[in-house]
Specification:
The complex is a heterodimer of chains A (117) and B (123). Chain A is an alpha/beta fold. Chain A has helices spanning 18-30, 62-70, 79-84, 101-110, and strands at 4-9, 37-42, 74-78, 97-99, 113-116. Chain A starts with a strand and ends with a strand. Chain B is α/β, with parallel strands linked by helices and 123 residues long. The longest helix of chain B has 14 residues, at 17-30.
Chain lengths: 117, 123
């Protein structure tokens, strides 16, 4: 059965593997038999991983992001988490949309499943 | 009967996420529900056989080994799948290091759990 799945990236991109490994899981479930609708949410310290300045190649993010987008997955950054960390919208990569905290919360509420990384 | 899926990324002897996953799965099985675990990242280390914690295994945090608790779940009907990439990355020899009943799969298996489960708990 096709599901709406939210993958939450909550940890900073450097020092832990959870941002790239969460992206690996996201593109993996987006490409499965059911072709789930997957939204990756960069939130909490994970918003640092949504910045344009992040070295995606060094973090093994590039291929996972390409596969996710090919499967029509989406990536969003939580504006509330950005504001708390003084991350400006101009700092966010072009392939990541910035959503308000309320919109992120609604997306999580409406999802069939959420996966935390 | 409901179908409960678990995504377990936490390893043993680090956090107690495995224990929380165990207790929730235990309760679900006892209530007659179907349970599948997908072990990802260091979660792949949780079912590795022959765990022991010398000098600390008589009480407290280490009185029960994670692998033993998951073997109990398997015996009671839980399905346990470990991510093959995570298994290889950690040098686990699945045939030798996992007890009977622990399967090795890939992310499409997680996708299947997401597609079929009534609830998925991420720990």
């Amino acid at each position: 059965m096709k599901r709406d799945v939210v993958v939450m990236l909550t940890r900073a991109p450097y020092g832990r593997v959870h941002v790239p490994e969460g992206l690996r899981a996201a593109r993996g479930v987006a490409a499965g038999f059911d072709l789930h609708d997957v939204t990756v949410v960069f939130t909490q310290d994970g918003v640092y991983g949504a910045r344009e300045a992040v070295d995606r190649d060094a973090l093994n993010m590039t291929g996972h992001v390409a596969d996710l987008l090919e499967q029509e997955g989406t990536m969003v950054a939580d504006a509330t988490a950005m504001e708390a960390r003084d991350v400006d919208e101009a700092d966010i990569a072009d392939d990541v949309s910035v959503w308000s905290g309320d919109r992120v919360a609604a997306r999580i509420r409406d999802a069939d499943h959420t996966l935390d990384f | 009967m409901a179908y409960i899926g678990f995504l377990l990324t936490g390893g043993p002897f680090d956090s107690e996420r495995w224990r929380t996953a165990y207790e929730l799965g235990r309760a679900a099985l006892d209530a007659g529900h179907e349970v599948t675990y997908f072990h990802y990242l260091d979660g792949a280390l949780v079912p590795v056989a022959d765990q022991s914690f010398p000098d600390c295994s008589d009480s407290g945090l280490y009185d029960e080994m994670p692998t033993a608790k998951f073997q109990e779940l398997i015996a009671d009907g839980a399905e346990v799948i470990c991510c093959g990439l995570c298994v290889d990355a950690r040098g686990i020899d699945a045939d030798a290091d996992y007890p009977d009943g622990v399967d090795v799969g890939l992310l499409p298996d997680l996708a299947d759990v997401l597609g079929e489960a009534d609830r998925v708990v991420s720990l």
